[in-house]
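Q: I'm writing up a methods section and want to include an example of the input and output format. Could you take the sequence below and give the corresponding predicted structure tokens, formatted cleanly so I can copy it straight into the document?
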Amino acid sequence: MKLADVIAVLESAYPPKTAEKWDAVGLVCGDPAEDVTRVLVCVDPASSVVDEAVEVGAQLVVAHHPLLLRGVNGVPADDPKGALVHRLIRSGAALYCAHTNADSALPGVSDALAGAIGLTVTGPLEPAEPEGTGLGRIGELPEAEPLSAFTRRVAGALPATVQGVRAAGDPNRLVKRVAVCGGAGDSFLEAVKRAGVDAYVTADLRHHPALEHVESGGPALVDVAHWASEWPWCEQAAEILRAAVGGRVDVLVSTRRTDPWTVGASSTAAGGHA
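A: Here is the clean output for your methods example:
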């Protein structure tokens, strides 16, 4: 298949026009007229993923996060991001990014997160048009379970990271109706309160918003690593491509962990009391 044909599949699933105005999605480098026989799907277009793309002979890397989110005047090879572009081009590999358009699609990033946790999705957290699309998802568990057990469920469903999974709220609070948002989701805390859910799963929660949310009686919070929250999307995107290309292209999911944190330790210093 030509790269242009693979891009057409991606843009049918994740329409670029639905990306946020500040976002940078689409083809970063590569010739649409070139042949593609192998695709590698990842969260981050990081150096280790480019290494992997070269090792497996991929002609296309599909990433969730943009490489060049902010405007640049050039991509020199002595710049970290420029070096990645040069290496991709020299290796005959294109780079395509689907970011907030993949977040809002149906299915999208949060559908993949919800599915990994075992939720049955009932709709978006922040609806958009067409119906069913939008940011975040609301879903339900088959049976209610304590927050402590639900937190273990989330940890068991996602790839391991140094951060792990942490929750805020009464460990015995029953959880059945859940909101999720892949990636950084503390901007949706007010929407989560309005949604009438028991818990909210997302990434990059900050101290003050989380504390104020819990103190005001909001749903329990489950905070996971950013990369881990979006990793289930890789298999979703891969399956969409596999279904469309009918075996003409080999579609792989990256095995490289691009979560930036590499060392963790539990504090042993004396602290305050709950």
